[in-house]
């Protein structure tokens, strides 16, 4: 991660201050601090090897995807306001399109795994 600006980008997305501030500093009123604005002129994201591991209660972890995807996503003029429209949604769409080509049975394999109940679902189930 030291070869590129990944740490700086991640810091900007999280809204952190300087690289030296490792702990979040609470405000006097305990309000969340707003994210800092940022501008990324040219973003280039390379997706190489993807590994998805599913772990359900009572079962050992199982690898359901372990493949090379090798695609590149590029976006221009990314800001905190248009991050979803310029990066998140298009990158997700490109990843899903790649999954359909590289691993067409993946969605069926994922559907075969039981979804783990959330804590809320467990608590609501116990109250009945």
Provide the fold topology.
Elements: H1 6-14, E1 39-54, E2 62-79, H2 83-102, H3 106-112, H4 119-127
Antiparallel strand pairs: 1-2
Quick take:
With 128 residues, the protein is of the alpha+beta class. Helices cover 35% and strands 27% of the residues.
Task: Give a description of the structure.
With 128 residues, this protein is an alpha+beta fold. The protein has one domain (36-127). It is 35% helix and 27% strand. The chain has helices at residues 6-14, 83-102, 106-112, 119-127, and strands at 39-54, 62-79. It has a two-stranded antiparallel ribbon with strand order 1-2. A hairpin with a 7-residue loop joins strand 1 and strand 2 (62-79). The longest helix has 20 residues, at 83-102. The chain is extended. The chain starts with 5 loop residues before the first helix and ends with a helix. The model is unreliable at 18-24 (pLDDT under 50).
Averaging pLDDT over every residue, what do you get?
A: 75
Number of strands: 2
Which regions contain 5 or more consecutive residues with pLDDT less than 50?
18-24
Task: Going across the biggest sheet, name each strand in turn.
Answer: 1-2
What is the succession of H and E elements?
A: HEEHHH
Largest sheet properties: 2 strands, antiparallel
Number of helices: 4
The Rg value, from CA coordinates, equals 20 Å
Fraction of helical residues: 25-40%
What is the oligomeric state here? single chain
Shape annotation: extended
Strand content: 25-35%
- How many discrete structural domains? 1
| Class derived from helix and strand content | alpha+beta
What is the first-to-last residue Cα distance?
49 Å
């Amino acid at each position: 991660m030291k070869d590129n600006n990944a740490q700086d980008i991640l810091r900007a997305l999280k809204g952190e201050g300087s690289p030296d501030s490792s702990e979040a500093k609470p405000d006097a009123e305990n309000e969340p601090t707003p994210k800092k604005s940022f501008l990324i002129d040219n973003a280039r994201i390379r997706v190489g090897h993807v590994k998805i591991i599913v772990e359900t209660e009572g079962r050992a972890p199982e690898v359901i995807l372990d493949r090379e995807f090798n695609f590149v996503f590029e976006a221009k003029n990314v800001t905190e306001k248009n991050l979803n429209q310029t990066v998140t949604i298009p990158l997700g769409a490109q990843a899903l399109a790649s999954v359909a080509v590289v691993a067409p049975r993946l969605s069926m394999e994922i559907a075969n795994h039981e979804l783990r109940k959330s804590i809320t679902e467990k608590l609501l189930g116990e109250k009945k």
